[in-house]
Design a protein that fits this description.
With about 230 residues, this protein is of the alpha/beta class. The chain contains six helices and eleven strands. It has helices at about 40-50, 50-65, 115-140, 180-195, 200-210, 215-225, and strands spanning about 1-5, 10-15, 25, 30-35, 75-80, 85-90, 95-100, 105-110, 150-155, 160-165, 170. The longest helix is centred in the middle third of the chain and has 30 residues, at about 115-140. It is globular. The two termini are about 25 Å apart.
């Protein structure tokens, strides 16, 4: 159920279940309060009012991050290997994307956000297949685990930039190709190291460091700037 309190600048949804504690989740501009079945409505409302400052802070931060997201359009900036390029849209019967120094030319039949994003994504995916697959094989050889690498696949997932499966398949989100090359190489080193350790133990991080120096700096970049690699749509 949705709640609207006159003194609060936001609405919130209450989800009740057989849980023991109350938790507030703020995601994509929406506030979800998860509460036990036996807690009274008044108690929940009072709890939300007490946490209103924190909630508003989270909503404000999410609005800022959303405004910083990518927009594929003529004369806008887009990153590739961490370098900013100016998008140039050209109406053409032949649909393709070409990189030339500081410009990214998008040739398209229709100048619509959906079409431009589709063309850009297809191009970026091809770049990822070429670069990240080669680097994954290279690093797996350096670590002596090339025999464990089954496949390199790409999927546009919101939860993880990369994932290593128990069968030896490694999955990447191709949007990471917009990050600086050292950050991309960190992600590859991270997932490839999971072919040895399927955990985040001290031994795992030591393995990552053996093929990616100062990996903490690259990991922090991805945490702080990862939202900029997603479009506003």
């Amino acid at each position: 159920m949705s709640r609207f309190e006159p003194e609060l600048p936001f609405s919130y949804t209450i989800t009740r279940s057989k849980r023991k504690t109350v938790a507030i989740h703020v995601k994509r501009g929406e506030v979800d309060v998860r509460a036990p079945l036996q807690i009274s409505q008044k108690w929940v409302d009072d709890f939300v009012r007490q946490k209103s400052g924190w909630i508003q802070g989270q909503l404000h931060e999410q609005r800022i991050r959303n405004n910083e997201k990518l927009k594929i359009a003529d004369n806008r900036q887009v990153l590739f290997f961490g370098i900013s390029r100016t998008i140039v849209v050209i109406i053409s019967p032949q649909q393709k994307v070409e990189l030339s120094q500081d410009f990214l030319f998008i040739y398209t039949k229709k100048n619509t956000p959906a079409q431009l994003e589709n063309l850009f994504n297809r191009w970026l995916l091809n770049q990822a297949r070429e670069y990240m697959t080669t680097q994954t094989v290279k690093i797996s050889r350096m670590l002596g685990v090339e025999h464990k690498l089954k496949d390199v696949v790409f999927r546009k997932t919101r939860t993880k930039w990369g994932h290593c499966c128990h069968d030896g398949s490694i999955q990447y989100n191709w949007l990471v190709m917009m990050a600086p090359k050292p950050v991309i190489d960190y992600l590859i080193s991270h997932e490839t190291s999971h072919l040895i350790y399927m955990n985040h133990s001290a031994a795992f991080w030591k393995t990552v460091a053996s093929v990616c120096s100062n990996y903490q700096e690259k990991r922090n970049w991805l945490k702080a700037n990862g939202h900029r690699l997603w479009t506003q749509s």
